Every structure is written in structure tokens, then in C-alpha cells.
Amino acid sequence: MGRFGWRWFWWLGAVVLAVPAGGETVEADVCVYAATPSGILAAVAVRREGRSVVVVEPSRWVGGVLGAGLKPMQDCPNYNATGGMTHELLRTLGQPEDAAEKVPLNRMNPQDVREDFAKLLQKWDVRVIHDHRIVRCEKTGTAITTACFDHAPFDELGCPVAEPVEREDVQVKAKVFIDASYEGDLMARAGVSYRVGREAASEYDEEYAGVQPPTEAAPIDPFVVPGHPESGLLKWVEADHGEPVGAADGYTQAYNYRYYTTSDPEFRIPITPPEGYSPQDFELVGRYVAYLAETVTDPAQLHQRLVGIFPGWKNSGEWNYQRASLFTMAPVGVSQLYADGDYATRARIWKLHQDYLRGLYTFMSTDPRVPESYRQELAQLGLDRRPHPETQGWPHQLYVRVARRMKGSYTITAHDVYNRTRIEDPIGLAQYGIDIYPVRRIWYRRDGQIWVALEGKMFVGGGRGPTNIPYPIPYRAITPQAEECTNLLVPVSFSASHLGYASARMEPVFMICGESAGIAACRALAEGTTVQDIDLAAYHAALEKAGQKLAWDPTADVSTADGGLTVERLLKECDRDGDRLVSRAEWDAGKKGWEWLFAKIDTDADGQITPAEYAAFQRYKATHPDWQKH
Predict the structure, then answer these.
(1) What angle in degrees, to the nearest 10, is found between the helix axes of 37-48 and 84-92?
(2) Structure pTM?
(3) Sign (positive/negative) of CA torsion 436, 188, 19, 122?
(4) For 549-564, what is each residue's pLDDT tens digit?
């Protein structure tokens, strides 16, 4: 069936599934909370074993952030390290069934990904109750007996609401519960311990844990009246809390939309100012733009720096957070309020991300400090209605990179990411760098000068991870401590440190953990025992039968991860005139999003990157997995 036919099919299915269940009590073997990719695979795994399952989803959509802009293969550096249903879906989600060639990532429509997830749920006859969010859990001893849900539909722009329409109008009684939400809300309401924010470096002996040195510093004045601290701080910057490097704090990394824009009038939806918009709210952005205009003399480079502020970083067709910019398309220093906030706070912070983006667009397209040519360029842009036609172009899922993290039977740390641990109960493999977006924007004094900078961002090891070798996710990391809850599995908000989660938090890993959680739930049901006490040998056999990849043998397994950024690859990508040198213009054209790196590689500052300079840079990266931090 073609894409148009499935769109029609999904529309019909959504109407049926989204009908409020008004006062309904549902009974099932397993209750899955949230139709994220992880939750969907958990539910399918349960149905595959012949057990009954119901999925309760807070929004009226399925697919989580993969249905909202993030591409299935974007955070999968080593496809051969995936297994089970994930191995198949990563290559087929969002792809036409009858196409001779695959749709490239930059042309993939998240609406098609949502449809494919809907088809999977329909195939396995999985019921999804939409527009309902967890409000409380009832327990007998350490076992959840009932989960109660409020009816709280998202608003017309795809944001959650502060207050529900109906309270506790759905109750689900189940034998096993799986919390596949990004926030860990069912887990929290079941009384399971969790953590938010950053641990100290000393807690798990993690080198880059806790507070970090500032980055992306610029000598701009943060005060309402320049030079007068008593006048107060401008918006979007805060005073340093004074904790030393390596100390714990409650902050967590930035969120953002993965959104689409277009200049095509047929599909463009205007980006309008938020209610109560004031240019003063973005005065600090204006001062940063003025600083860039004064210090960046190359017009092409200045243009790229302005793009980094708004719309951001062009990832694979959609805009993402530009971490190399002091300001970009999402607010900093607010995600910690969302992480453990109540629903009213969550609604406010989610809407804040939307309003920030609208306000930043308005400012950048009207403030006279922005070059006129770029203001005119932005004036042509609007949201693209095609990926998200139901919400006026706004993605229905905020990219919540981390919220709560369970305190489970095992805590994944940086030592796991570096392959320094031995795991006896693997449920799947992970491979990615320690990927953390900024947590704060602060001002401080140094050498008599006032600076504004970001704090907390790092990308240790890049996409392939610091060792380029996958590491196992333990079963104990998705199970609560037995004294707290004995029939709950948590495949998304699993047990990890701030650094460990920053590597393992990728959607392919969540999907793998979701399927393995569904299999574990069925083992607990079959054995009549708790999730902590299932027969691990039988569980291991069930995982292998499902095709999960549980171990990596570097001597036998072949990685699909990038084998290296060689000189020849650089020249192929960037050397337009064939002189085996890469100029600034050639680099900027061939390395979108990495414009800032040119000056670091061009060590003699002659405006050309030579093969020797590039080879030296790659050698440095190989011995310094935290090279981006420095």
C-alpha cells in the first residue's frame, strides 16, 4: 500500500484509538506507559508471546521523538550492534514499502515514521489509549496493582496542558507494568527511587562528571544597564552558583525541538511572536550578534554563525541545537525544572521552548543589529506544515534528552561506556559518545573582564564512542530495587549516572531495551515470579531467540561505525579545485555544522588545511576522546 493509503488508514485508526475511555477499567497482563519507540516494541514483544497488553500514551500520537523529527538511524553509529526488532525497524521506518531506493535521511518525513509505528501496533492488535497521563499507582506490598490516568489532551500546537479534562477516568489493572516514558512518571508514582541532575565526579569516579569549565565564552555584558550589576541580569543568563568543577548540582542538559522550516509559500506557516513578546527579552542575543559582527570578518563565516543562532544546526533535514554557539534555537538552564516537575510546570516549560523559538525568530528577523540581508533571509522562512499538519507545523514531542533516572539494581556509568566493566546479564548493546548539550549559561569575571559562557556541554568520543566498541546494557539497569517494586520495568528512564545516561540515551538503545523489557515481563508471568527473580538463563535464551545482540566480539564482529575521517575522505568532501588543500570556503561548504573547527585544524593560520594538518588533528582525536571539550 502506498503512503497515501496508509495515511488514510492511520487517520481512521487514530480516531478509534483516541476516543476517551470515560471511567473505564482495563485489565491486561502488561500495561505499557507511553507509545515511545521503546514502549511500542515492548508491547509488540508482549503480544508476540501471546499475552495481553495495553499502551497508555499521554499525547494523541505514537513514536515519541522519532515521530517528531529525529531520524531512526541518526544515533546508530554501528548498525551491526543492534538486534531484535530494532535491527529491522531502523532501516525500514519512514521508508516506502515499494520504493526501489531508500529515502535519504534529509528527505524522510516524520509523519511516515509515525504511520509505520501505527501499522506495527495495528498488526499486533495492540490497543493504545491516547490523551491520558499517569496520576497515581496503587500497590499491594511491592507490587503495582492499578495505574490511574487523567484525561489530558495536548493543545492545538502539540503541547501538554497544565490541568486535565477528567481526573482518573481510566484505570489499568495489570500484572506487570513497563514505564517507557521519557520522564519516568509511572516509575516515580510507583515509589521507585530516582535521581535527577549531575553527580559529583567523586561519586562514581567519573572524570567529567559534575560541574564543568565554561565553553563558548564571549566578552559581552549581561546586565540590563551595561557595566552596572545593580541594574539586574538580562534574560537567558544566570549567575554562576559557585560550585567547583566536578561538584554535583541539579542541572541537566538542554532540550529542544527537532523542527522543520520552509520558504515555500504553499507549505509555509508564519512564525508569529509569542504573547507578550518584548525585544528586551532577547537583548543579550543582540549583544552577542553585535559581538560576532565586530569580530567575524569573513561574510560567509558570519552568515554561518547567524544560522547557528537561528534556525540552528541543520541535522538531517530538520533543525537541531547548535552547540558551538553561545545562543541557539532553544533555552538553556530550564530543563532541570521539567525533569522532576509537576504537570503544570512541565506544561509551562514545554510551552516556554515554543515561545522562545518564536521570540528568537522575531528578534533575529527584526533587530537592526542583525545584518539586513540575513533579516530578509529569515523573513522568508516559516514552519513547514508537511511533517506536522495537525499542530500547525510544531513537532508534537519535545526532545527530552534526560529527565528522571531510576536508582536501580545497577547504575550505568562512564566506566561502562569505556568498556571497563563486566556484565553478566546483558539485554542489548549500546554505542555512542558521552553526548551532553549545555546545562547552564552563566556570567563570570576573569582577568578583570566580564564573560558570558555555556557550561556543561561535551561530546566525549564522538558518535562512535570513546572506544569505538559497543558495551552491554545490564538487565539490572531496567529493574527497580526489589524492596521498592517487583513488577515494574523501566527501559527508557533506566538506572544510570548523568554521564552514563548521556551515552546510552539514544533511541536505538531505548528500542532494544523496550523489546527486552517486554520479553522479561512475559518471563515473569510465565514463571509466576518478580521481575528481579526471573530465570536469567531462560531469559537469555528468550532474548537470543528474539535476535537480540547481547555481546560484541572485536575479533569476529564487523562494525559499521565510521572507520575514520581520513585525508582522502576530507579531500573528496571538500577539495573543490583539486589542489589537495582545503580553504575556509571549501571547508564551510563541505562540513556544514563544523565551521568553527577550521581554525583549530589550520594550525599555521594560513587559511588552508593541508593533509599533514588534518592527519595531525585525527591523531590528536584518537588520543583525546574529549577533544571537543578542550
Answers:
(1) 130
(2) 0.88
(3) positive
(4) 999 998 888 888 755 5
